[in-house]
């Protein structure tokens, strides 16, 4: 554990406004009313906070909560007192999740702590982050369950996916981590591993076998364990299954849900025969695998036992032990009569009904399924290195210090690092860089305020730049973006860009500037500047790449898929000099990863309703694609005309829906008519299918108008004779929020 720095994010600390409020709110809930106070009181009494970078958790914002939960559900959490009982029941706000005053506020604080801990890992500030008030793994997107009103686990994993290509989620709770598995069921970017009890009538009733669908098939591993399971078998199974998963999957980051309701005679679960030592061992193992680790709480319904166990887990991660005698503090009486750590959790163990050979054989079988999934999905290779990017973008210093030998017509040799004097001389030879707006190429400094030179105006005279540096950079980028090693990728020099203070480029997507172009590689040459961060967005995630802090002596690269919306923030001082390359390939272009979210699951639900002839689903569903296409290109090429983002999404959707003889999918043009006047808002849609990260346009201002689908293009076979069909925006039209009003400029 030497050198394994800790960042323990606590949502409860005496004397802090939000911490006191969290404890107060928790006392109004229906379970574990005193647990946060006992847990953090015991940790503080041992002085553990003095050895950690302890931070007070801040409430999650509405925008953060909307990354997973639906707006309607969050409104129900906030205004439950105004809802009739049937609506409360629909949102799961009854029985063990019955609402109480301050429910939304408590949910926001719970999620905020886990998001804050995850942010500590994403920033690189810490390698270990802990939020013991988190781990609410049963909350669904629009429904509470199992004492969980907000799924801080899913929200934290989504945040981690912005910094790592893959995340491994390990769940030690005696109850199956059903909602976390469900959230990532169609994705290979999150591997969920859950060890739990599975028996008739035992909540939540899922997790009897491995699952996953589409691209996520094989990436949800479930290991049911029998009543009475002891420490030795539990730790051995965790070491075998989770350790094997790390080796096969090679995650960039690990999330460990450390629910402790498997302790012997937990008053609610009453299933396994574990002691705190089992959880200590599992936590040490998870830390030993060398990935950034986010440790969350979970179940545990005897508060003194949960407090003792988690305190022991924390000191195990610190590499030491706690004194046996519990220090006197505000909650000291609850640890009597012996007031020692061992006495609190000492129980008669239940009868052990487990079979070690069967459990270990199940571990080996699950690992075999995982290796097959990795081979099928990743071409037999494991994930990219742990310090690489999030799968749609990447950045870092170039491995080599070799410089390009830049010579500019009319200026001569450009020495590096670039000086402000030479930058001004260089600017005099440049022109303002244009960008695409619709069918036009325009110059508008309010959108793009950057200077450029074409390759005809400069030379790179160092032969090693093209022979060694660029090919090496391309290999790094291929690995980080998840592109198959045997895929030929060429970096074609496109522009030299100069940014001065105030230079920027607003949100846009890159246009296809060369045949087979699928991405952009930028190499920023050494100079002293600040600002100019590259912000890349994809699938509801966002990554900010700050090259200025790395750039004084070494060139730095940034790369991303062209389909990803991105922007260059203003340079605040100095000058930024960047070579831009088009990343091109032959055949089918690589595409950014598509992480399925609720919209794909809505589609699957609709498809199932169609298949069951339930009559409850709409007869047609249209999803607006991210890009625009001509009717001719769609007629000639079908899905092959799609840009990579739309093509990857369409393939995922079609696979998820298992479109076949009973379901039809086709392309169409959608027209919107506003106040009786025809508008130019004509875009392409997949009819019968929807995309990820889309929101139903129920009450959005940009959903105003009459919509019609026409000009049909078949994906296979003859053209559908559907004619012109009206669309109901509230139920039949799905698009990303702000789709009609907020289309990003097409850029260079």
Automatic annotation (TrEMBL):
<dbReference type="Pfam" id="PF00850">
    <property type="entry name" value="Hist_deacetyl"/>
</dbReference>
<keyword id="KW-0156">Chromatin regulator</keyword>
<protein>
    <recommendedName>
        <fullName>histone deacetylase</fullName>
        <ecNumber>3.5.1.98</ecNumber>
    </recommendedName>
</protein>
<keyword id="KW-0378">Hydrolase</keyword>
<dbReference type="InterPro" id="IPR023801">
    <property type="entry name" value="His_deacetylse_dom"/>
</dbReference>
<dbReference type="InterPro" id="IPR005123">
    <property type="entry name" value="Oxoglu/Fe-dep_dioxygenase_dom"/>
</dbReference>
<dbReference type="GO" id="GO:0141221">
    <property type="term" value="F:histone deacetylase activity, hydrolytic mechanism"/>
</dbReference>
<dbReference type="InterPro" id="IPR003084">
    <property type="entry name" value="HDAC_I/II"/>
</dbReference>
<dbReference type="InterPro" id="IPR023696">
    <property type="entry name" value="Ureohydrolase_dom_sf"/>
</dbReference>
<comment type="similarity">
    <text>Belongs to the histone deacetylase family. HD type 1 subfamily.</text>
</comment>
<dbReference type="InterPro" id="IPR037138">
    <property type="entry name" value="His_deacetylse_dom_sf"/>
</dbReference>
<dbReference type="InterPro" id="IPR000286">
    <property type="entry name" value="HDACs"/>
</dbReference>
<dbReference type="Pfam" id="PF13640">
    <property type="entry name" value="2OG-FeII_Oxy_3"/>
</dbReference>
<dbReference type="InterPro" id="IPR044862">
    <property type="entry name" value="Pro_4_hyd_alph_FE2OG_OXY"/>
</dbReference>
<feature type="domain" description="Fe2OG dioxygenase">
    <location>
        <begin position="487"/>
        <end position="585"/>
    </location>
</feature>
């Amino acid at each position: 554990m030497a050198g394994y720095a800790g960042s323990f994010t606590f949502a409860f600390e005496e004397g802090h406004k939000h911490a006191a409020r969290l404890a107060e709110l928790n006392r109004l809930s229906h379970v574990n009313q005193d647990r946060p106070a006992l847990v953090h009181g015991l940790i503080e009494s041992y002085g553990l906070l003095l050895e950690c970078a302890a931070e007070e958790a801040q409430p999650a914002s509405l925008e953060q909560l909307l990354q997973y939960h639906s707006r309607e559900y969050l409104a129900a959490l906030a205004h439950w007192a105004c809802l009739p009982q049937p609506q409360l029941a629909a949102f799961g706000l009854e029985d063990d999740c019955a609402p109480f005053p301050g429910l939304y506020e408590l949910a926001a604080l719970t999620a905020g702590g886990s998001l804050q801990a995850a942010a500590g890992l994403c920033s690189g500030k810490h390698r270990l982050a802990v939020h013991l008030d988190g781990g609410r793994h049963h909350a669904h997107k629009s429904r509470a369950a199992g004492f969980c009103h907000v799924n801080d686990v899913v929200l934290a994993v989504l945040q981690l996916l912005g910094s790592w290509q893959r995340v491994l989620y390990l769940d030690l709770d005696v109850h199956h981590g059903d909602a976390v598995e469900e959230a990532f069921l169609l994705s290979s970017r999150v591997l969920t591993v859950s060890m739990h009890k599975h028996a008739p009538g035992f909540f939540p009733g899922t997790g009897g076998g491995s699952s996953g669908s589409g691209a996520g098939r094989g990436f949800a591993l479930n290991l049911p364990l029998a009543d009475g399971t002891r420490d030795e078998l539990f730790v051995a199974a965790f070491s075998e299954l989770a350790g094997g998963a790390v080796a096969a999957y090679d995650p960039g980051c690990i999330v460990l849900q450390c629910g402790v309701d498997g302790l012997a005679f937990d008053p609610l679960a009453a299933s396994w025969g574990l002691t705190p030592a089992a959880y200590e061992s599992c936590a040490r193992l998870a830390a030993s695998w060398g990935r950034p680790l986010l440790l969350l709480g979970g179940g545990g319904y005897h508060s003194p036992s949960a407090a003792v166990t988690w305190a022991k887990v924390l000191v195990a991660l610190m590499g030491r032990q706690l004194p046996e005698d519990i220090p006197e503090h505000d909650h000291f009486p609850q640890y009597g009569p012996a007031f020692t750590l061992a006495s609190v959790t000492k129980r008669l163990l239940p009868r052990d009904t487990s079979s070690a050979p069967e459990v270990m054989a199940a571990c080996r079988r699950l690992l075999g399924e995982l290796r097959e999934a990795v081979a099928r999905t990743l071409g037999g290779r494991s994930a990219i290195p742990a310090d690489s990017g999030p799968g749609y973008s990447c950045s870092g210093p170039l491995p080599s210090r070799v410089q390009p030998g830049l010579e500019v017509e009319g200026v001569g040799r450009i020495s590096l690092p670039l000086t402000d004097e030479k930058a001004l001389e260089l600017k005099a030879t440049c022109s303002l860089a244009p960008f695409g707006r619709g069918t036009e190429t325009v110059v508008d400094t309010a959108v793009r305020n950057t200077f450029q030179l074409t390759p005809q105006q400069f030379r790179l005279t160092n032969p090693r730049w093209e022979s060694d540096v660029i090919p090496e950079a391309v290999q790094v980028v291929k690995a980080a973006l998840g592109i198959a090693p045997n895929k030929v990728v060429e970096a074609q020099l496109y522009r030299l860009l100069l940014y001065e203070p105030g230079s920027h480029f607003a949100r846009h997507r890159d246009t296809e500037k060369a045949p087979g172009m699928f991405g952009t590689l930028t190499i920023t040459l050494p100079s002293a500047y600040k600002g100019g961060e590259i912000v890349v967005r994809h699938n509801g995630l966002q990554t900010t790449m700050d090259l200025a802090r790395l750039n004084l002596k070494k060139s730095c690269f940034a790369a991303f898929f062209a389909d990803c919306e991105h922007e260059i923030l203003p340079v605040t001082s100095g000058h930024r000099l960047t070579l831009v390359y088009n990343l091109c390939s032959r055949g089918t272009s690589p595409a950014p990863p598509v992480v399925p979210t609720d919209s794909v699951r809505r589609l699957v639900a609709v498809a199932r309703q169609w298949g069951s002839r339930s009559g409850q689903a709409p007869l047609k569903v249209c999803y607006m694609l991210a890009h625009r296409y001509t009717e001719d290109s769609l007629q000639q090429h079908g899905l092959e005309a799609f840009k990579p983002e739309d093509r990857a999404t369409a393939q995922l959707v079609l696979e998820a829906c298992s479109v076949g003889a009973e379901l039809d999918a086709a392309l169409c043009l959608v027209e919107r008519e506003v106040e009786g006047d025809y508008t130019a808002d004509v875009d392409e849609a997949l009819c019968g299918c929807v995309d990820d990260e889309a929101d139903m346009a129920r009450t959005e201002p940009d959903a105003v108008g009459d919509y019609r689908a026409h000009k049909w293009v078949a994906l296979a076979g003859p053209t559908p004779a559907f004619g012109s069909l009206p669309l109901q925006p509230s139920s039949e039209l799905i698009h990303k929020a702000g789709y009609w009003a907020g289309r990003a400029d097409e850029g260079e």
